[in-house]
Every structure is written in structure tokens, then in C-alpha cells.
UniProtKB/TrEMBL annotation:
GO terms for molecular function: transmembrane transporter activity. Residues 22-414 form the Major facilitator superfamily (MFS) profile domain. This is Putative MFS family arabinose efflux permease. Pfam families: MFS_3. Coiled coil: none annotated.
């Protein structure tokens, strides 16, 4: 199927710098700046929710369960959501989903302000958020191609989109820590609810080229996407690498409140700085990815930078007892995880046929967040038995073993990726 035509508004315009070349497309700019505000709000809520859970219960297991509840719907619902998305107008559905997400955050804010929130209700709200995100994530990701309208600029657009997410990780947690010190979790949730209006307005302002919709039942459309993913060895291996890195390294998010309060003797602001350090590393990784041109070269980046660096940084974080060194290790963890996630996303979307894009993105997001969910749950349960430090050490060792095994896959993966990329 042919790619959408180039953005006509670019004709005769001065080229943008290579690291931000996708911003030359007006549709992508509308989306980009609306997304920036929305992501900042989402990270503020995530930190505030983790702090609320640990403040109310002091339970490492409940931290893991809450993370699991928020993420596992993407593993279960996500693949079918992708099939459903490919049959509908993605732009209109995204605007509607953003409105519902905003409403969910505002309800959470009201319940928290009224002291009507407890573990059961937090888990229920987390499940609702997870179901909504199972539609939201593949919608946003699969629309980027139509906002850019150019296969050549798609990798840069995906890297810039990831940069937004990671800049939110860098800025949002310290802001959340400050807001928690000055106000309450309810204020953080309310700010997130309002932030969704920005992305709704940005997407409403776009005028992307029409894209083909899949036909047939959701079941048939799903099976078509699953057959595509399963029949490609390189796609399977990329998704497996994505799963391993997020199953192990990404579960740090569940354990950070424990490290902040019990290991380092800090408070919500300490949690914000640790989480922000991971975000800073992830942001640096997306800057690195934005300037890259070689798509097949991302295979080595994913295995060596993603799995290898993440493993070493997780082990370093588990061993040290000083906050500054812990922040440095968290930056390494964030850098490595982001290299893997962005790299796999770019490779999958660069190769995916346009009519399968929603399903391919849903397989990516369900694996990425589903592995987060399972890893977070296991980390919380294990930390309740052996402690947070020992849990991080176990995760680091498992990831080192995967990295050593995956090194031998690099030549074949690189060759198959290069052979399957479309010719521009």
C-alpha cells in the first residue's frame, strides 16, 4: 500500500534541522505540542499515585499490584484494541479517549480530596486507566505516520514523540514531588485531568491524509495482524527483547518509593529526584535516537545499549547507598530502557504495512506495558519477601544473562531488518 502523500505545506519551505525534521510537518507540530502538556500531567499523576499508595499502606506488594492493575489491560486488551482501531477513524477515536482519560483523572482527584480513596478503589481506578491506555497508546503511535506523511521522517517523528514522553519523565516527577510537598495528591490528579485538553485540541487541529481502514470482524482483523507478527522471525525477536528489558529493568518504578523512603531515608521529593534522574537518562537516549539515520543499526543499539547498559545500571543502583550515585545509576537505567523501547518501535513501524499499523503498534505497546505489569507485580511480591535491594539484584542478573544470549542474534537481525525496509 502506498505511503500518504508528502505534506503539501512543506513545498518551498526552509528545511528544519535534521534532529527535529519531523516538526516541519504542521500536523505533527499540532500533535507534538498538545502531547507535551498531556504527558507532563500523566507523569505528575503517576508519581502522586505511587506516593499515595505507599503513604496509605506502606506495602511493597500493593505498589506492585497497583502497577500491575494499571498495565496488564494493555497486555490483555491491547492486541484486540489494535484490531478494533484499524477498523475506525483513529483521529476521532483518539479525541474521545482523551476526554474519557481526563474525566477519569478528575474523578480520582475528587475521591482523593474527599478522603474516600482506599486500596480497593485505587486498584479499580488503575484497571480503568489501563483499559483506556490500551486504546490510547496504539492510537497515538499509529497516527504519527499520518501526521508526518513521509516514511523518511517517520523514525525521527517516533524519536521526537519518545523524547516528549521522556522529558515528561524528567520534568514531571520533580514537579510532582514539589506539588506533593506543597499541596496534595488530589491537586496532582486534577492537573492531569485538565492536561488532556491540550492533546484533544492539538489532534482536533490536524488535517491528516485519509488512511485505509481494515475490513471484516475484529477477530479476523486481529488474526491477520498476529499472522504478520508471528511469521516474521525478526519481529518475534524484537518483541522478545522488548519484553525482557521491560520485565526486568522497567520494574524499578515499583521499587523506587521503597528505596526513597526506607533505603535512603527520604520523602516524596527524594522519590521525585530518583524518578526524574531516570527520566533524564531516557530523555538523553531519545536525543541520541533523533539524530540517527541508520535504521538497521538500531539492532545493535537495542541489544547492547538497551539490554546491556540497563543490566549494568540496575546492578549499580542495587549496590549503592548514596542518593547522588543512585541518581546516576537511574539515569543509566532510563537511558538503556529508552534505547530499547524507541529502537524496537522504530524498527517495527518502519517495516509495518500501513493497513496493519494499528495492530503492529498494539503488539508493541501490549508487550512493552504488559511486561511492565508482570515485572512490576513480581518485583513488588519479591521485595515484600527479600527486600527491594535483593530484588533489583535479581533483575539485573536475569537481564545480564539475556544480554549475553542475545549478542549472537545481532548479525541475523540486522540483515533481515535491512532487507525488509521499504525503498524510498
Amino acid at each position: 500500500m502506498a505511503s500518504p502523500p508528502p505534506d503539501a505545506s512543506l513545498a518551498g519551505t526552509r528545511p528544519w534541522p535534521a534532529p527535529v525534521r519531523a516538526l516541519a510537518h504542521p500536523n505533527f507540530r499540532f500533535y507534538f505540542f498538545g502531547q507535551a502538556i498531556s504527558i507532563l500531567g500523566s507523569w505528575i499523576q503517576q508519581v502522586a499515585l505511587a506516593w499515595l499508595v505507599y503513604r496509605l499502606t506502606g506495602s511493597a506488594a500493593l505498589l506492585g499490584l497497583t502497577t500491575f492493575a494499571a498495565l496488564v489491560p494493555q497486555l490483555v486488551v491491547g492486541p484486540f484494541a489494535g484490531a478494533w482501531i484499524d477498523r475506525h477513524d483513529k483521529r476521532r477515536v483518539l479525541i474521545a479517549v482523551q476526554g474519557i482519560l481526563g474525566l477519569q483523572a478528575l474523578v480520582l482527584a475528587v475521591l482523593t480530596a474527599m478522603d474516600a480513596i482506599g486500596p480497593t478503589l485505587i486498584i479499580a481506578m488503575s484497571v480503568a486507566l489501563g483499559v483506556l491506555n490500551a486504546f490510547d497508546t496504539p492510537l497515538r503511535q499509529s497516527l504519527i505516520n499520518s501526521f508526518v506523511g513521509s516514511k523518511a521522517d517517520l523514525p525521527n517523528a517516533l524519536a521526537l514523540n519518545a523524547m516528549l514522553f521522556n522529558s515528561g519523565r524528567f520534568i514531571g516527577p520533580p514537579v510532582a514531588g514539589l506539588l506533593l510537598a506543597l499541596s496534595s495528591e488530589a491537586v496532582c490528579f486534577a492537573l492531569n485531568g485538565v492536561s488532556f485538553l491540550a492533546l484533544m485540541a492539538g489532534v482536533a487541529a490536524t488535517r491528516p491524509a485519509p488512511t485505509a481502514r481494515a475490513s471484516g470482524s475484529v477477530g479476523r482483523v486481529f488474526r491477520e495482524g498476529l499472522e504478520y507478527a508471528w511469521s516474521n522471525w525478526s519481529v518475534r525477536m524484537l518483541i522478545f527483547a522488548l519484553a525482557m528489558v521491560n520485565l526486568t529493568a522497567s520494574s524499578y518504578a515499583v521499587l523506587l518509593p521503597i528505596f526513597a523512603k526506607d533505603v535512603f531515608g527520604g520523602d516524596a521529593q527524594t522519590l521525585g529526584w530518583l524518578w526524574g534522574a531516570a527520566g533524564a537518562g531516557a530523555f538523553a537516549a531519545t536525543l541520541f535516537m533523533a539524530v540517527r539515520r541508520s535504521v538497521p543499526g538500531l539492532v545493535k543499539v537495542i541489544i547492547v545499549g538497551g539490554a546491556g547498559l540497563s543490566a549494568l545500571a540496575v546492578l549499580a543502583f542495587a549496590w549503592n547507598r548514596e542518593v547522588p550515585l543512585a541518581m546516576l545509576a537511574m539515569a543509566g537505567v532510563g537511558f538503556g530502557i529508552s534505547l530499547c523501547n524507541v529502537g524496537v518501535n522504530v524498527l517495527l513501524q518502519s517495516r509495518a504495512p500501513d493497513h496493519l499499523r494499528g495492530r503492529v503498534v498494539s503488539f508493541f505497546s501490549s508487550t512493552r506495558y504488559g511486561a511492565d505489569a508482570i515485572g512490576g507485580l513480581l518485583a513488588g511480591l519479591l521485595a515484600a519477601q527479600v527486600g527491594a535491594r535483593a530484588t533489583m539484584l535479581v533483575e539485573g542478573v536475569v537481564l545480564v544473562l539475556f544480554f549475553l544470549w542475545a549478542l549472537r542474534l545481532i548479525p541475523r537481525l540486522r540483515s533481515e531488518v535491512a532487507a525488509s525496509l521499504p525503498v524510498h
